[in-house]
Write a structure and sequence with these properties.
Blueprint: E1 3-8, H1 11-22, E2 30-34, H2 41-51, E3 66-71, E4 74-80, H3 87-92, E5 103-107, E6 120-127, E7 135-142, H4 144-157
Parallel strand pairs: 2-5, 2-6, 4-5
Antiparallel strand pairs: 1-7, 3-4, 6-7
Helix pairs in contact: 1-2
The chain binds adenosine-5'-triphosphate (ATP) and magnesium ion.
Residues 8, 10-11, 13-14, 35, 37-43, 60, 80, 107, 133, 135 line the site of adenosine-5'-triphosphate.
Amino acid sequence: MKKFNITSNLSDQTMHIASTLAKHLKNGDTVVLTGELGAGKTKFTEGFLAYFGLENEITSPTFNIVNEHTKNDINIYHFDVYRLADIDEFYAIGGEEYFDKGICIIEWGELIEEALPEEYIKISIQKQENTDNSRELHFEAFGQKYELILDKLKEELI
Ligand SMILES: Nc1ncnc2c1ncn2[C@@H]1O[C@H](COP(=O)(O)OP(=O)(O)OP(=O)(O)O)[C@@H](O)[C@H]1O
Ligand SMILES: [Mg+2]
């Protein structure tokens, strides 16, 4: 499975989808979150952290660019690269060095596309018109490893 869509009608549902993804990932994996302001990228990350019991640590990493979370052997690096002036700033903070060390979940990751690892999962979140809480989540796998993960995820969610 290279791609599939799923609808979320509540922020809790988005968190549940994110937790379901989290259980398939390990250190060295990368998730890119894209979608307009307020789409639900941070909410998705909160659900992702919840799988590891870390949901209380969620903050918007606006000032740090990256927030680090650790549970047992898992490191989660939550990026928000929206405020980087350009991709050189990402290289300057040593952004690439995080990719091998833990799970990287990157809000606005499309802005640093050329710095991303070859393989990753991209999730585009779109607000739906005329509703406050409805979102379309579009999953896309780059790389066979992630295609297999999307196969499992689809089975579990649909
Ligand atoms: N189905 C849904 N999924 C996710 N969030 C939802 C949903 N319905 C409502 N919301 C609300 O939308 C808001 C999403 O905010 P969030 O901070 O996650 O957006 P964001 O994409 O991270 O924005 P930014 O680009 O500013 O970082 C939250 O207040 C959340 O409760
Ligand atoms: Mg956010």
